[in-house]
Write a structure and sequence with these properties.
Blueprint: E1 12-17, H1 19-22, H2 32-47, E2 51-56, H3 59-66, H4 76-100, E3 105-110, H5 112-116, H6 118-134, E4 137-142, H7 156-166, E5 171-176, E6 197-198, H8 203-208, H9 220-234, E7 237-242, H10 248-253, E8 260-262
Helix pairs in contact: 2-4, 3-4, 7-9
The chain binds adenosine-5'-diphosphate and the ligand N[C@@H](CCC(=O)OP(=O)(O)O)C(=O)O.
Ligand VHF binds near residues 18, 142, 144, 156 and 218.
C-alpha cells in the first residue's frame, strides 16, 4: 500500500476529538492544556492555508461534570440538559483559546434533519464554504438538545464523516483514547494486535471493531469503522489516532506512520443520502 507522504499535501481537513480526549479520565473535568494545544495546532494548519473543521464532542461529558452528576446519565432529557450546559461551556473555552491566536471560530450544530432535508443540507454546505473563504474554523457538534432517538446521529464519528463528505474534505482525523484499530478491543483482550493500515474495509475489519468500554465515549471503534466507510467512499483518507498528545496531528500531517490509516476509495456514484439511515422517515424521503 502507498505510504503516507501525500498527507502533507492535504488541503481540507476535518479533525474529530472525542469526549474521552477532552476530559481528564480521573475527574471528568475539561483538559484545558490539551484544548489549548489543539487550538494552537488547528490555527497553525489554518495559517498554512489549509481549510480546517473541528468536530468536537464533550458537551454531555462537560455538562454532566458542571452539574455535579457523577454517573453517566441514561435518561434522554438529562443527557440533553447536560449537553445544553456543556456545549456553551465548551464553546466559551474554545472562543477564549482561539482569541489568543487571533483566530475566529464558529459553532455549527447539526442533526440528521440538516442532512436529510435538501435545503438545510445545502444551507449548511454553503455556510461551511463561506466560513472557509472567511478564514474561520467551524466547530461542529450534533445539536443534542433537539435530537430524538429517531433522528440522532448519536455519535460524532459518523457526523464527522458526513461533514467530510459534505465539504469534500480530503482528510478526516479521528482522535480517540486509543492508538487506532486493533484486531479486538485491547481493553478487553490483551492479545489484540494493532492494525497499521486498511486498504479496503470489509467484514473482517468490521468484526474487529467493538463498542466503547470507557465511561465517557460513545460508539467505540464500531462507529469509527462506519465513519471510515463514508469518508473513504467520499474520496477522503482517514486516520484514527491517539489524542493523548494532540501534537500527533502535526505528525500525521507530516506523513509519519501514526495511528491506523484508511486509504480513500472514491465511489464515483457517491451519494451522501445513501449513507444516512432514513428508514425512520418513510414520509420524508
Ligand atoms: N478493535 C478495537 N480496536 C481499538 N479499540 C476498540 C476496538 N473495539 C472497541 N474499542 C474501544 O473503542 C474505544 C474508543 O472509542 P470511544 O470510547 O467511543 O472513544 P471516543 O470518545 O474517542 O470516540 C477504545 O477505548 C476501545 O476500548
Ligand atoms: N454529541 C455528544 C458526543 C457524542 C459522541 O460521539 O461522543 P464521543 O464518542 O466522545 O465522540 C456530546 O457532545 O456530548
Amino acid at each position: 500500500m502507498a505510504g503516507r507522504e501525500h498527507l502533507k499535501n492535504k488541503k481540507r481537513i476535518v479533525i474529530k476529538i472525542g469526549s474521552s480526549s477532552l476530559t481528564h479520565q480521573e475527574t471528568g473535568k475539561i483538559n484545558l492544556s490539551k484544548m489549548e494545544k489543539l487550538v494552537r495546532i488547528l490555527t497553525d494548519l489554518r495559517n498554512q492555508g489549509k481549510d480546517v473543521i473541528l468536530v468536537s464532542s464533550g458537551a454531555i461529558a462537560v455538562g454532566k461534570e458542571t452539574l455535579g452528576i457523577s454517573n453517566r446519565p441514561t435518561e434522554k432529557s438529562v443527557k440533553q440538559a447536560c449537553a445544553a450546559v456543556g456545549q456553551t461551556r465548551l464553546m466559551m473555552v474554545y472562543q477564549k483559546l482561539f482569541a489568543e491566536y487571533n483566530q475566529v471560530p464558529a459553532q455549527i450544530l447539526m442533526t440528521k434533519y440538516t442532512m436529510i432535508n435538501d435545503i438545510s443540507r445545502e444551507n449548511a454546505q454553503n455556510t461551511f464554504h463561506e466560513l472557509f473563504e472567511m478564514g474561520v474554523i467551524p466547530i461542529v457538534n450534533e445539536n443534542d438538545t433537539v435530537t430524538t432517538d429517531e433522528i440522532e446521529f448519536g455519535d460524532n464519528d459518523t457526523l464527522s464523516a458526513i461533514v467530510t463528505a459534505l465539504v469534500n474534505a480530503d482528510l478526516l482525523i479521528l482522535l480517540s483514547d486509543i492508538d487506532g484499530l486493533y484486531t479486538d478491543d485491547p481493553r478487553q483482550n490483551a492479545e489484540a494486535v494493532f492494525i497499521d493500515s486498511v486498504e479496503h474495509i470489509d467484514e473482517k475489519f468490521e468484526g474487529m471493531a467493538k463498542d466503547s468500554s470507557t465511561l465517557v465515549g460513545t460508539g467505540g471503534m464500531a462507529t469509527k469503522i462506519s465513519a471510515a466507510k463514508i469518508a473513504t467512499a467520499s474520496g477522503a483518507d482517514m486516520v484514527i489516532a491517539n489524542g493523548e498528545e494532540v501534537d500527533i496531528i502535526n505528525s500525521i500531517m507530516a506523513g509519519e506512520k501514526k495511528g491506523t490509516f484508511f486509504l480513500e476509495n472514491k465511489n464515483e456514484n457517491f451519494k451522501l443520502l445513501d449513507y444516512i439511515s432514513t428508514r425512520q422517515y418513510p414520509n420524508k424521503v
